[in-house]
Specification:
The complex is a heterodimer of chains A (165) and B (164). Chain A is built from seven helices and no strands. Chain A is mostly helical and 165 residues long. The termini of chain B are far apart. The chains are: A mainly alpha (165), B alpha/beta (164).
C-alpha cells in the first residue's frame, strides 16, 4: 500500500507533467488575453452581457483582467513564480465558472467571451464550457500544489545562486 | 515568511502591477475606454424559444387545392408583415407576423390551438432563414402539432398560383 501511494505521489508531482500543465495553462491564458487587450471595448460588452457586475466596474474589469491573464500566462510559461501565477489562474477560473453558471441558470443564450467576441451562434455557453473551465481549474490547482520550480527562470536563478555560493 | 504566504503575496503583487499596467496602457492608447462607462450597455441576449420539428411542403398547385378544399380543417398562416399580408395572401390565411426577437404572444398561440384545425400550414418570406419555417418551428415547439411550412415561401406560392 505504501509503495502504491509512493508511486501515485511520484506521478502526480512528476516535474515533466507539471511542466506540461504549466505550458498548456500558460498558453490558454495568453491566447485568451490577446483579443481582450486589443479590443477592450468589445470585451467590456462581453462583461456587461453577463449582467452580474455593476456598471461602475464593468470597464475597469475589462481593462484590468486581460493584463492579469497576460502576466499569469507569461509567468507559467517562463517558470517565474509559477505557483503564484497558478493561484491567479485558479482564482480567475473560479470567477469564470461562477459567471457562466449564473448565465446558464438564467437561460441566457450568449457567447462566453473567453477567447474572442464571437456571437452566441458561433460560441454559445453550455455545460461543456463549465466543464472545460473546471478542468482548467483542476490543472491550475495541480500546478499550485505540486510545482517545485524544476524548470524555468526560478530554477535557473536557484542554480546560479548555488553556483556563486 | 512561509511558502504559502509568499505565494499569496506574489500573486497580489502581480495582480496589482498588471492592473496598473493595464490602466496606464488604456489611458495612453487611442482605442482606450473610459474607466467607468458613461451610459449603460445596451445588451441583447435572447432567451431561446423551444423549437419543434416541422415538415416542408412544396408549393404545388395541388397543395393550394388541398388547402382550399380542406378549408376549416387546415389553418393557413402568413408569417409576413401586416403590409405584405395586405398586399397579397392566400385565401383564408391568417396573419401572424414573425419576429426574430419577440416570441409569439401566448394569446396568439391559444388562438391557433383553439382553431380546431387538423393541419397547420405556414408560409413566410422564403428567404434564408425562412420566416415561415422559423414561425412553424416556434409554434411546434410551443405545442402546436401537425404543422408544416411551405418551401420557398410566398414567392413560390405566387409562382404556383401563376402557373395554374
Amino acid at each position: 500500500m505504501n509503495r502504491l501511494s509512493r508511486t501515485a505521489s511520484a506521478v502526480v508531482s512528476c516535474p515533466w507533467l507539471i511542466l506540461a500543465l504549466r505550458l498548456y495553462i500558460g498558453y490558454v491564458f495568453l491566447a485568451a488575453c490577446f483579443h481582450k487587450i486589443v479590443h477592450p471595448a468589445m470585451f467590456a460588452v462581453d462583461v456587461a452581457t453577463y449582467d452580474i457586475l455593476p456598471l461602475a466596474v464593468i470597464n475597469l474589469m475589462a481593462i484590468v483582467l486581460p493584463w492579469i491573464e497576460l502576466a499569469a500566462g507569461l509567468m507559467l510559461v517562463a517558470g517565474f513564480r509559477a505557483r503564484a501565477a497558478a493561484l491567479l489562474t485558479s482564482g480567475m477560473m473560479v470567477v469564470f465558472i461562477v459567471a457562466i453558471s449564473i448565465a446558464l441558470a438564467r437561460g441566457l443564450h450568449m457567447s462566453c467571451g473567453c477567447f474572442a467576441s464571437q456571437g452566441a451562434v458561433e460560441d454559445p455557453i453550455s455545460l461543456l464550457t463549465v466543464a472545460r473551465d473546471a478542468v482548467w481549474f483542476i490543472m491550475s490547482v495541480w500546478i499550485l500544489v505540486f510545482d517545485r520550480n524544476s524548470f524555468g527562470v526560478d530554477h535557473l536563478v536557484e542554480r546560479l545562486s548555488a553556483w556563486k555560493v | 515568511m512561509t511558502g504559502w504566504k509568499r505565494i499569496v503575496r506574489d500573486a497580489i503583487v502581480v495582480a496589482a502591477a498588471s492592473a496598473a499596467v493595464g490602466i496606464l496602457f488604456n489611458l495612453a492608447r487611442e482605442e482606450g475606454i473610459p474607466l467607468v462607462a458613461e451610459s449603460p450597455y445596451e445588451i441583447f441576449v435572447p432567451c431561446p424559444e423551444p423549437l419543434g420539428e416541422v415538415d416542408a411542403v412544396l408549393p404545388t398547385s395541388g397543395l393550394l387545392d388541398q388547402v382550399e378544399i380542406r378549408a376549416g380543417r387546415t389553418l393557413v398562416i402568413d408569417a409576413g408583415s401586416s403590409s405584405d399580408f395586405s398586399s397579397w395572401h392566400l385565401r383564408g390565411a391568417i396573419n401572424i407576423p414573425f419576429d426574430y426577437i419577440e416570441p409569439v404572444a401566448d394569446q396568439v398561440i391559444r388562438r391557433v390551438a383553439s382553431s380546431r384545425a387538423r393541419h397547420v400550414v405556414v408560409y413566410g418570406d422564403g428567404a434564408d432563414p425562412d420566416s415561415g419555417r422559423e414561425l412553424a418551428r416556434e409554434l411546434a415547439g410551443r405545442g402546436i402539432s401537425n404543422i408544416a411550412f411551405v418551401e420557398g415561401g410566398v414567392q413560390a406560392l405566387k409562382s404556383a398560383r401563376g402557373a395554374e
